[in-house]
Amino acid sequence: MDGGYRAEDFAHWIIDVFCWIVEVVLRPLEKQGFTLLPKPWVVQRTFGWLNSFIRLSQDYERLPETYQTFISIAMIRIMVSQLA
């Protein structure tokens, strides 16, 4: 995650609710301007892949469960295409 989520309350909430450990990636203080960070591109790349599916590019669904199902189907398709 990026520096916007570095609050201790947020980290404790994630641990209590999801049992996940959050790793916050911060930009080095001595760097100015654009700096390539090691982890956030993974999340941004995944959102980019999901936006290539027209059904997921906008909120067409009435139920969150339907939207979640389409995300699962899209990720399965992405993973299968990566294996091929």
Question: What does this protein structure show overall?
Answer:
The protein is mainly alpha-helical and 84 residues long. It folds into two domains: 1-29, no CATH class; 39-84, no CATH class. It is 56% helix and 0% strand. It contains four helices and no strands. The protein has helices spanning 8-18, 40-51, 54-57, 64-83. The longest helix is centred in the last third of the chain and has 20 residues, at 64-83.
Offer a quick outline of the entry.
The protein has 84 residues and is mostly helical.
Biggest sheet details = none
Shape: extended
Mean pLDDT: 80
Provide the gyration radius in Å: 17 Å
Unreliable segments of 5+ consecutive residues = none
State the domain count.
2
SSE order, one letter for each helix or strand: HHHH
Number of strands: 0
Structural class based on helices, strands and sheet pairing: mainly alpha
State the helicity in percent bands.
Answer: 55-70%
- The number of helical elements comes to 4
Q: Span from first to last CA?
A: 30 Å
How would you describe the oligomerization state of the chains in this entry?
Answer: single chain
Strand content: under 5%
Features:
mainly alpha, 0% strand, 2 domains, 84 residues, extended
Note the topology.
Elements: H1 8-18, H2 40-51, H3 54-57, H4 64-83
